[in-house]
Design goal:
One of its GO terms (cellular component) is cytosolic small ribosomal subunit. By secondary structure, the chain is mainly β. It contains no helices and 5 strands.
Length: 86
């Protein structure tokens, strides 16, 4: 069988909160070029993601993938933990 390519977005960020049960808050930083001044600006967004085993801790670098809505604000799912915080 052939693998079907997914067109769901995948983002990488840092966990900033793990207080809720089975939920993490991931801060994703992107660089955007200013249209007039041509300087790169850091934009930060926070996404709530589902962490079913409560594996993540604050400071971990994780990869999250788009998912169906799980609650009012949770539309992302933990794909993998790339680096654990020390």
């Amino acid at each position: 069988m052939e693998e079907q390519k997914s067109n769901r977005r995948v983002l990488t960020g840092v966990v900033v909160s793990d207080k809720a049960d089975k939920t993490i808050v991931v801060m994703v930083e992107t660089l955007v070029k200013h249209p007039l001044y041509k300087k790169y600006i850091r934009r930060r967004n926070k996404f709530m993601a589902h962490d079913p085993q409560n594996d993540c801790g604050i400071g971990d670098t994780v990869s999250i993938i788009e998912h169906r809505p799980l609650s009012a604000r949770k539309r992302w799912h933990l794909e993998k933990i790339m680096e654990k915080a020390v």
